[in-house]
Amino acid sequence: MSLLNYFSTQPKSASIAKERLQIIVAHQRRERSSIMSDFLPDLQKELIEVVRKYIEIRDEDVNIRVEQAENYEVLEVNIALPDSSIVKIHTK
Amino acid sequence: MSLLNYFSTQPKSASIAKERLQIIVAHQRRERSSIMSDFLPDLQKELIEVVRKYIEIRDEDVNIRVEQAENYEVLEVNIALPDSSIVKIHTK
């Protein structure tokens, strides 16, 4: 199944029908302990900051979920884009 | 289905069994026209640069995929972490 299928099979509801942005950082590791786990929180924070440079995001519209399994660690950031959310002018 | 299920049901192969990092940015929009397309190339470049601050990655280990459907746009950055990948010293 492609990721696109995953997203388009998500349940639709009035609130979900808004514009939404999801940022997912998934780390597949071979062992439960990984050197990467140490800096994953910092990395995640920085990735969100990058997206913020392009899209206006309010803190209250951000929902963060972390899932962990033996070999996986998935961070899911769900952002409801307000109707007025206009992409910032990105000057290079 | 949770995202974690999605990731853990991905086909396993020798190459996939490596450590991997995936960064996914999905934009669910109401109309076909997308504001994200305009800055997607810059966004993906910046996301990779952030990861590079933490992990030594070679260009050939980075795989980028963009999927588009009527109401969805998904940017997927797949990074295979080489066995010798030593985490850079991250000084806060």
**Beta content of chain A:** 25-35%
CATH class of chain A: Alpha Beta
Shape of chain A: globular
Task: Name the structural class of chain A.
Answer: alpha+beta
Q: Unreliable runs of chain A, pLDDT <50, ≥5 residues?
A: none
Task: State the CATH topology of chain A.
Answer: Cell Cycle, Chain A
Q: Report the order of strands and helices of chain A.
A: HEHEE
Corresponding CATH architecture of chain A: 2-Layer Sandwich
Structural summary, described in words:
Chain A is an alpha+beta fold and 92 residues long. The first copy, chain A, has one domain: Cell division topological specificity factor MinE (Cell Cycle, Chain A, 2-Layer Sandwich), CATH 3.30.1070.10. Chain A is built from two helices and three strands. In chain A, a hairpin with a 3-residue loop joins strand 2 and strand 3. The radius of gyration of chain A is 15 Å and the shape is globular. The N and C termini of chain A lie far apart (36 Å). The model of chain A has no long low-confidence stretch (mean pLDDT 72). At the A-B interface, helix 1, strand 1, helix 2 and strand 3 of A face helix 1, strand 1, helix 2 and strand 3 of B. Strand 1 of chain A pairs antiparallel with strand 1 of chain B, so a sheet runs across the interface.
Quick summary of this structure?
The first copy, chain A, contains two helices and three strands.
How is the topology of this model organized?
2 copies of one chain form a homodimer.
Chain A: H1 3-8, E1 20-28, H2 40-54, E2 62-68, E3 72-80
Antiparallel strand pairs in A: 1-3, 2-3
